[in-house]
Amino acid sequence: MENKVLTKLLASALIITLTFANIALLGSLVQEVYAEKVDKVEFNAYLKDSEGNLVKQIEKDVEESLSLVLDVKVDEGYLSSTQISIDESNFRLANEIVKSELIQSVDLDNNIITLSQVEKGQTASLEIKVEAIKDNINNIDKETKLTLQGKFISEQGKKKDVKLTENVNAKFTTSAKAEIEQTLSKVVPFNQEDKKGVIIETVVKTNITNNSVPVKESKLEIQAPVINNEKPQEVKVHSNGTLATNGDNGIGFNEQNYNYNSDENKLEITVSNNENEQGKVNYVQNSKDEYVVTYIYSEDVANTITANKVNIEQNATLTLQTYTNQEIKQENAKQVFEINGASGKLVSTQIGLNTNKISKGYIYNQPEKETEYTQYYITDIAYVGLVDEVKIVVDEDKLVDEKNEILNIQGATYFKQTKIEQSNFENILGQDGEIVI
Known about the structure:
Layout: H1 2-36, E1 41-48, E2 54-55, E3 57-61, E4 66-74, E5 78-87, E6 91-93, E7 103-107, E8 112-115, E9 123-132, E10 141-153, E11 159-173, E12 178-192, E13 195-208, E14 215-223, E15 234-242, H2 243-246, E16 258-261, E17 266-272, E18 289-297, H3 299-307, E19 310-322, E20 327-339, E21 347-353, H4 360-364, E22 375-381, H5 422-429
Parallel strand pairs: 3-11
Antiparallel strand pairs: 1-2, 1-4, 4-9, 5-8, 5-10, 6-9, 7-8, 10-11, 12-13, 13-18, 14-17, 14-19, 15-18, 16-17, 19-20, 21-22
């Protein structure tokens, strides 16, 4: 009898244990299914076209405003600690983010938007202004990844990390134009021993409108002026900077960048902008390339110009290859210069400062009781072949107070260091040139 009772009890315990185990297993399965199906949160991203349509792909002028539309919807529970990041993109958040109760904060440096809490049944819809990233050639046509990360809290109070991604694609183009500006800077007749003639110097500035996109290569073609049916005997070019094309201040420009074909009377100037290992290129916003073109003409032309008023014509064509795979061109930009005798000097110098004011507080805070400032001496030599030496004589600096009165202080300043760019030195003075200070 006892054995029968024991057997029944063991059987009951086994049945109960198996039943509880099945119930516990069922609970685990329910929890697992619930965890995998946190699809109570929807995330969508679009770009808005000019007609207001929401699209996944768009082709847009790089200077036009671009809107990114983000939709976050919660069907049940709520979403907190939510961030949307713009990753691997060819655009970034613009400064003109509209204030909204839906937005908690914006990190412009890292392209991250932090949302306020999104409640059950709510759709957080944001229209965000973005702008093109222009200095990387890989950004012209690129798919952008947008990532939403946050914490989903169910109606039962269970928490779950949420990570959703969306992709959009923006291809940037430009409607910008090539621009050319031409001026006459010098007319200098010369008569030195067996060298007689006239130097005519023009300055040509070029750029793409607003420097809207990086330039891969700029090519400037100039039809040189013909005077009295004579072409120039020699043509020289130096650059004061190719900032608009490649961000260079002129140091990298040399004779390899230009060629004068005397048969066609055509000057060609070519400057490239090569990418670095990161795919980035250099150029400076709101800048221009500047070329100084020096023509040397014969003695007959010099006599004509000295005795008469003469009009000469310079014709320029600018072709820009951009990193948006476009060719932008301005053709046959004609400029007529009126020459009425000599103007300018064979050698001219400009002096500049890195600052025009120094405050007393700044002076007093210098640890060595010395205040450094930089003076720039820019010397323009129209034709190096006519110059044996260049001498720059600097008078003693004069200090002026806030009332524009000259202070009676002698020996207040001195030269601490003198620098000259090696490439400029060699271009002007050659390998055997020297500087005496």
